[in-house]
Design goal:
This protein is of the alpha/beta class. The protein has 2 domains: 231 residues, ATPase, nucleotide binding domain (Nucleotidyltransferase, domain 5), CATH 3.30.420.40; 223 residues, Nucleotidyltransferase, domain 5 (2-Layer Sandwich). The chain has 19 helices and 21 strands. A 7-stranded mixed sheet has the order 17-18-16-15-19-20-21, sandwiched between helices. A hairpin with a 5-residue loop joins strand 17 and strand 18. Helix 15 crosses helix 16.
């Protein structure tokens, strides 16, 4: 096994981004943050945009700072899913990409039912129906701004857009393509049936390349501007969930993972997509990953509820750290009340604590009155939603799982990890926190010949990070809570 590899991973999430320098000594991977920046959507005349040019400026700053730390052999960018930019024939961005939380997709999922049977839709894509999906964003353009699609030459998903800005090469990486709900999951190619049925221009959709593809080198102009070599640019796994999945330190073939951040991605890894009526009834998605594997998973609202609640309390002049919120939640009365984290009223930004109180009043539960009670309600409800997803997953796969791996930012929350162990009655292994970065780095190292394969990468990452284990407690109390939770979900 070769060693001494240095690569630069850009990990962009819904609220911020980092440039992380990864180093491999032949035994372990170490990562170092060289640049951090915020990712702030901008609302103009009722439309919520991503400030993509500012983000690209920050990527350039990350390149400069990494150069000052000794340089790197390659670059790769991962981001959230579903969002995209449209380029004209000259390769110019037609407008800033629009945020998935923008209201333009309202009603589009229902509209699509009149154009394509949803059973057939799912059988082709194996994708969970969510109104934020790329397909419904495009349908909104087709219905309300057809001139935009007429002017567009191609669509690039967010990580592919940044890779294009770095290289001038237009391709779409496989994992991020599977978040669009426009892919034939079995053929691993764009679905002409869906694209034509919804009246979208098929010419928008560029070649799909596998995860871990070296797509080109940094352009000469950017290299000269920043004074760095024309290093390789790798499409690792453009969707951050799939980069994170590479870093699950699992030794068993069958495992459950929760990639826990603003969203919680709860699932398992399969060799092939699992698409049938049962999976469709549970609205479970099949997302593509490295080596063409399928992540059979549910998208669940996750830390967004705590993040947005904290922003509301700050607007009210109450400054709480996440650690303080966790401590208050831990000390609050257990099993006071529950919410369905995926209820429509919790998707958009705003006063989440007030919406939680309204939800509890509407479902005839005790109403949380303190910050700690709201925080505990959120964490318990997320843990119980995990159990619900786990039962659906096991019913579809027919498999038993001994351990749940929680990776990503949520793995730092001891409260949520312990609650998940209790709710699901499974041991929880928490870590790595920086799973997305480790996965991005590992795929670049594989592309560069430093690591041979995925199995080796997971072994190396397991040696490189600390994992904390949480054992289930209070099974009877959690079983009773789950019965109440199912009733309020309806």
């Amino acid at each position: 096994m070769r060693s001494e590899g240095k690569v630069l991973a850009f990990d962009l999430g819904a609220s911020g981004g980092r440039a992380m320098l990864g180093s491999f000594d032949g035994e372990r991977i170490t990562i170092e943050e060289v640049h951090r920046f915020s990712n702030d959507p901008v609302t103009v005349q009722g439309t919520m945009y991503w400030d993509v040019l500012r983000l690209f400026h920050e990527i350039k700053q990350g390149l400069l700072k990494a150069k000052q730390r000794g340089g790197f052999d390659s670059i790769s960018v991962d981001t959230w899913g579903v969002d995209f930019g449209l380029l004209d024939k000259e390769g110019r961005l037609l407008e800033n990409p629009i945020h998935y939380r923008d209201s333009r997709t309202l009603g589009m999922m229902d509209k699509s039912r009149t154009m394509l049977d949803h059973d057939e839709f799912y059988q082709i894509t194996g994708t969970q129906f969510m109104e934020i999906n790329t397909v419904f964003q495009l349908l909104s353009l087709s219905q309300n701004r057809p001139d935009m699609l007429e002017r567009a030459d191609c669509l690039l998903m967010m990580p592919d857009l940044f890779h294009y800005m770095l290289t001038g090469i237009k391709v779409v990486e496989y994992s991020i393509a599977t978040t669009t709900q426009l892919l034939d999951a079995r053929a691993r190619q764009w679905s002409e049936r869906i694209i034509k049925a919804l009246g979208l221009p098929i010419t928008l959709f560029k070649e799909i390349v596998p995860c871990g593809t070296r797509i080109g080198t940094l352009t000469k102009d950017i290299a000269e501007e920043l004074g760095i070599p024309q290093v390789n640019v790798v499409a690792s796994a453009g969707h951050d969930t799939q980069s994170a999945l590479v870093a699950v330190p699992a030794t068993e073939e069958d495992f459950i993972f929760i990639s826990c951040g603003t969203w919680s991605l709860f699932g398992t890894e399969l060799r092939e997509p699992l698409i049938n009526r049962q999976a469709a009834s549970f609205n479970i998605t099949n997302e593509g990953g490295y080596e063409g594997k399928a992540s059979f998973l549910k998208n669940i609202i996750g830390l967004w509820l705590i993040q947005e609640s904290r922003r509301q309390w700050m607007r009210e002049g109450k400054e709480y750290s996440f650690g303080e919120l966790e401590a208050m939640g831990e000390n609050a009365e257990p099993f006071l009340c529950f919410i369905d984290p995926d209820a429509p009223e919790f998707i958009s930004a705003g006063n989440i604590p007030e919406r939680i109180r309204n939800y509890c009043e509407r479902t005839s539960q005790r109403i949380p009155s303190t910050v700690g009670e709201v925080a505990r309600c959120i964490n318990e409800s997320i843990a119980l939603k995990y159990r619900h997803a786990m039962e659906q997953l096991m019913e579809c796969t027919g498999k038993e799982y001994d351990v749940i791996h929680i990776i990503g930012g949520g793995s730092v929350s001891q409260l949520l990890c312990q609650m998940t162990a209790g709710a699901c009655n499974k041991a929880v292994e928490a870590g790595p926190i920086e799973a997305t970065v480790y996965g991005n780095v590992a795929l670049q190292l594989i592309a560069g010949g430093k690591i041979p394969d995925l199995k080796s990468a997971r072994q190396i990452i397991s040696r490189s990070v600390e994992v904390k284990v949480f054992e289930p407690k209070d099974r009877d109390s959690w079983d009773d809570a789950y019965e109440r939770f199912l009733k309020i979900m309806g």
